[in-house]
Structure formats: structure tokens, C-alpha cells
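Quick question, first post here. What does this chain look like in 3D?
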Amino acid sequence: MSEAESRTFPSRPFVGASIAVIRDGLVLLAARANEPMRGVWTLPGGLVEVGETLAEAALRELSEEVGLTAEVVGVLSPTEIIVRDEAGRARHHYVVHPHAALWRGGEPVTGPEALGVRWANLSEIGTLETTPGLIGTLREAFARVAGRGTA
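> Answer (accepted):
Ran it through. C-alpha cells below.
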């Protein structure tokens, strides 16, 4: 059984971490390369590995997926993503813990987990197909970063 198949119809939710990297008033988005929600814009992120903190997972995924470095400035409200099949069974279930961060280095590049990357402002995000709850997470991220005196 492949790793992707083992995430289908899980017996428990998977824990993930994501990261809203803000640079000059813009946030980095990545288009998902994998199912579920292939091609949908979201934050870089992925599953937390054993022994890793949520922030460590978010920073690792950022580096692996798009080649950036950042400084985490805070944890944001978690998002649950539950995708059900036609019978109502949970086909996918993730609990994602997003983080607000400030860009520290690198330019984003696509890799095997991202079909595309882009910097966007909040008004642009409303015109994109995004993962559930993303706009609320981003508003919270911008507020957290602004509270540090930088955005």
C-alpha cells in the first residue's frame, strides 16, 4: 500500500502543519500537486513527523516544498479538513496547525509537492480556488505579523 493510499479512509485524523510566510504585505501560496485538492491554492505544509514540533514541521515543509526560510512568529487557529465520499464516510481527515511567519530568505520554487507558487495579497486570494478556511487563517496570520510591527 502506498503512502497516499494509507491516507484514504483513515482510522484516525492526520496531524499536519502549515506556514503563512509574509513578505512585504504578501503571503506565499502554493498550488497542491497531490490529492486531495490537486491544483488548489494553499499554504506550504504537510504531515508532522514523529519527534518534530509543529513549528519544526512547518519550517521543514517550507524548505522542502518551496525552498524558503522563515521565522515563525506565532501559531494560528487549527483547521480541520474532512473530505467525505458519497456515502458520508471520511475519505480524508486532516487537522492542520498553521503558523504565521516572516520571510527570511530564498525565492520560491516549485517542486514535487507544488504545481505553482505565488505571492498574493488578501484581496487576490478571494479570486482563487483555495483550501477550506484559508482566508480566515490568512487574516489571522496578517494580524499576528502586524502585531510584531512588521508586515
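The two ends are 44 Å apart (CA to CA).
The first helix runs from residue 3 to 6.
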